[in-house]
Amino acid sequence: MGVTLSEVARHAGVSLATASRALNGSARTVGEALAAKVRASADALGYLPNAPAQALARAATANVGVLLHDVADPYFAAIARGVSDAAGQAGLLPLVINTDGEPETQVRGIRMLHGQRVRAILLAGSAHTDPEAVLAVDAALSDYRADGGLIATITDHGPAYDAVLPDNRGGAADLTRALLGLGHREFAVITGPERLRVPMDRLAGVREALAEAGIEPAEGAVQHVEFTRDGGREAVRRLLDRPRAEWPTAVLALSDVCAVGVLGELRARGIDVPGVMSVAGFDDIPFAADVAPALSTVRMPLERLGAGAVTLALESGGGGGRPVRLALPTRVVLRGSTAAPVARGR
Q1: How big is the chain by its Cα radius of gyration, in Å?
Q2: Strand extents, DSSP E, 210-267
Q3: How far, in Å, CA of 336 to CA of 181, rounded?
Q4: What is d(CA 258, CA 236) in angstroms, rounded to the nearest whole number?
Q5: Taking the model in full, what pTM does it have?
Q6: CB 280 within 8 A of CB 251
Q7: d(Cα 141, Cα 135) in Å, to the nearest integer?
Q8: Alpha-carbon distance 86 to 113, whole Å?
Q9: Residues 322, 201, 210, 173, Cα dihedral to 10°
Q10: Tens place of pLDDT for every residue, the chain, 346 residues?
Q11: Which of 144, 182, 174, 183 is nearest to 160 (CA)?
């Protein structure tokens, strides 16, 4: 097996991306002294440059690849719209890959986009909590970036990547504090799968705010489901199977799509919202204000997330220097589903 570019980078004491730019002819150059050091290491080790790598660095296609969990989810659809608008302004065409949040599908998507010589790859779905999944995704991205590819992520996928960072934890904490301010003390939390970082970050924000108020969620009050309408329905059914005295006064569904499922199930059972139970979501997807009652939520700048990732990838160069971390604030929006303070002695 021949000498790899990673071995050259280690020998020269530089990053993989720097070694790639020095040897593969990227449009982004490195200083002559550093380039000479990399070339000397390549000569010493007998490295033969990879012709496809040179082709990608010099002649990337006018495409940007976008990997997201579910294109049918309004959250991801709004992000994809932001990507499409910003990419179009840069003369690029987005290629969207639906991964269902599965790391194996994500890795296959990255490698396919690499083979298509896309200009940049954007990760629009949550990072994984499983270390093996993280390593597999990182390896595929490293190969792509070593060939001159540009990368940016939406939410935190590790310190190696430029990232647009919405305040998932802070937004969830602020929403919880708002419900506490309405008098709620009995909470249920519906969050996403433990294999994904975003739902776990949101759950951490809820726990933080409840701990400040001296509240520990009751046993079984935290439900992990898929961030879907059916997931919301499934979770609230479990909560309602308990004696009525154990029902929460407030349900925090940490995804608007989940919250819509919660509202639908409560409506089907004739349970008044917010008279008996308040409901809140997260994301402020486009129709959150149009459901009945209108959904209280945390407003995420969804299209700005997508557009910001495109800008980061193209303008910062995808992580060759110190990664850029662009923080975007969130905002609590209280609507009809939590409009009234909790009824005392309900």
Answers
A1: 23
A2: 222-224, 250-253
A3: 16
A4: 10
A5: 0.82
A6: yes
A7: 10
A8: 19
A9: 60
A10: 456 666 788 899 887 667 766 776 554 566 788 888 988 998 888 876 655 445 555 557 889 999 999 999 999 999 999 999 999 998 899 999 999 999 999 999 999 999 999 999 999 999 999 999 999 999 999 999 988 899 999 999 999 999 999 999 999 999 999 999 999 999 999 999 999 999 999 999 999 999 999 999 988 999 999 999 999 999 999 999 999 999 999 999 999 999 999 999 999 999 999 999 999 999 999 999 999 999 999 999 999 999 999 999 987 654 445 788 999 999 999 999 997 676 544 4
A11: 144
* Contact indicator for 74, 63 with CB cutoff of 8 Å: no
Counts of helices then strands in the chain (DSSP H, E): 12, 12
Could you tell me if 279 and 321 are in contact, meaning their C-beta atoms sit under 8 angstroms apart? no
Task: Count the alpha carbons within 13 Å of 16 in the hemisphere toward its beta carbon.
Answer: 19
Residues 17 and 203: their CA atoms lie apart, in Å, by 35
Residue 306, classed as helix, strand or coil, is helix
- Which amino acid, one-letter code, is at 148? G
Q: Tokens in use for 25?
A: 């002819």
Buried-state track 58-86, b at ≥16 Cβ within 10 A, e below 16: eebeebbbbbbbbeebbbbbbbbebbbeb
195, two tokens: 């294999």
How many C-beta neighbours within 10 Å does residue 160 have? 16
Quick check: 289 and 262 in contact, CB under 8 A?
Answer: no
For the chain, how many residues are written? 346
What's CA 252's distance to the chain center, in Å? 19
- 145 and 151 in contact (C-beta within 8 Å)? yes
Cβ neighbour number for residue 229 with a 10 Å cutoff: 20
Q: How far apart are CA 66 and CA 82, in angstroms?
A: 11
Hey, what are 151's tokens?
């990368």
